[in-house]
Target: NAD-dependent epimerase/dehydratase family protein
Amino acid sequence: MRIVITGASGFLGRLLAERLLHTRTFAGGPITRLVLADRVVAPEMPQASGALVEWVHGDLIDRVEAVFAEPVDVLFHLAAAVSAECEADFDLGMRSNVDSTRTVLEAAKGQSVAGGPVARVVFASSLAVYGSHPALPLPPVISETTLPVPRSSYGTQKLMCEHLIADLSRRGFIDGRVARLMTVAVRPGPPNAAASGFLSGIIREPLAGLPAICPVDAGLKVALSSPRRTVRGIIRVAEAERGTGLGRLDSPLPVNLPALTVSVADMLATLRQVAGDTAADLVTVAPDPAVEAIVGSWPAVFDNRRAAALALQPDPSFLAVVREYLADHPEAVIVGSE
Ligand SMILES: NC(=O)c1ccc[n+]([C@@H]2O[C@H](COP(=O)([O-])OP(=O)(O)OC[C@H]3O[C@@H](n4cnc5c(N)ncnc54)[C@H](O)[C@@H]3O)[C@@H](O)[C@H]2O)c1
Model:
């Protein structure tokens, strides 16, 4: 099986690559080739050397022929520009998120039309497809049947791609699957340009002894998922057989990956519990209307039943999420923990 990950040098792409290189199987079959595509060269990914792995560097639009130089069985499409970038630069978002996806989908369609395999295309969408509009307020609990009304260019671009994938799947050109990711926290490394980036920063920076700004009111509730559970969810959606019943993907609808609902105040209280007052006092709450407009429009409470049918559960608590970060990134933590 030849498997491709686009955005393989990114946060989740790297974790997904590491996971697949660890198991070396997909849906019970052996992975014979793992193609890692990204315009950025990952600084270090020790497992990603060796005969199994092939790197395709460069912008996806320019390098799609290399990605499809041999038949693609499964393509995890993670390459994207993040929310605040897309809000700041409309054209960049359209190119990175819509044009790139369209290019990949055209190549996958070309492969099956030419008699090659129908590629399984797994798209990392986002909870940002949902948004509350005064004329169409969100219900208190969101499910896959809730009408997505995005309130950002990023969410709109993700939704456009979802529709395209659904139509190409309906026509039999691809076997498309859409996993809508919650905000993934705690993200290691330097801050990124996602509007939700502070949801990692308010934990990660104080744990490293650094100050952090919380740009929203602490009463805001958010929907989170840990990196490990998110990657597990993406793989589960990818591997599931279609059909009805437990463990099967039973309709063309996307899957909202399971959400842990937590308020920012609860997150800060967990930080105080884990790392003490000195670390927690490094966070300054200073609401920024631009960030609040994006992150505040996203829903926080999800009906996780469709994910549960695939044996996916939300993180048990935010404390568990922080402990996972401490265990996975001891090098990034300088403050004492409980
Ligand atoms: N991390 C989250 O909280 C979150 C939440 C919801 C959805 N998602 C989605 O999950 C996916 C992965 O997220 P992430 O946090 O790993 O993002 P990331 O920014 O860490 O990684 C994205 C990678 O894609 C690459 N890339 C972007 N455009 C490209 C292009 N045109 N050609 C080649 N490479 C390109 C970037 O170089 C980067 O390495 C994205 O599609 C994102 O929208 C993430």
User: Anything to note?
Assistant: The chain has a mean pLDDT of 94. The longest strand covers residues 120-126. The chain has two domains: 2-182+226-256, 195-221+259-302+314-332.
